[in-house]
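Appendix B: a complete holo record

For completeness, this appendix reproduces one full record from the ligand-bound portion of the collection. The bound molecule is zinc ion. The inputs are the chain sequence and the ligand SMILES; the output is the full three-dimensional arrangement of the complex, encoded as structure tokens. No fields have been trimmed.
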Amino acid sequence: MTTRSPEFLRRFEEKLRAQQLLLERSMISAVKEGRQSSTDDLQDAADHAVQSYQKELLFLQGTQGHSQLAQVRAALDRLEEGTFGECLQCGEMIGEKRLEAVPWTPHCIACQEKIESGQIADPVRAA
Ligand SMILES: [Zn+2]
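The structure of the chain with zinc ion bound, as generated:
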């Protein structure tokens, strides 16, 4: 099995921890939604860009924000276990570009397509 460099893993750990924080904050603000402006809790411009993206993602996912948070936490667990970047379904290494785009993804693109087309069950969502 290919070993990812420590730099690679550290970079993704940072991404995942940032995402975890954003999700937790977004879920808290979702609870408060309607009572305050959605921009109240933005801290800086960089944060703003990421949060806007995150809000859009959460909007698209609706109530799946919680399951995404579970995926982020699971990815952090895999980082600690040393299995981060391996597809949970087939065990192949997930492409680096895909990890860059969706660091918490548990599946390679081939398996993701099979899941989305219903050819295989999604073990994460089913759990
Ligand atoms: Zn796979």
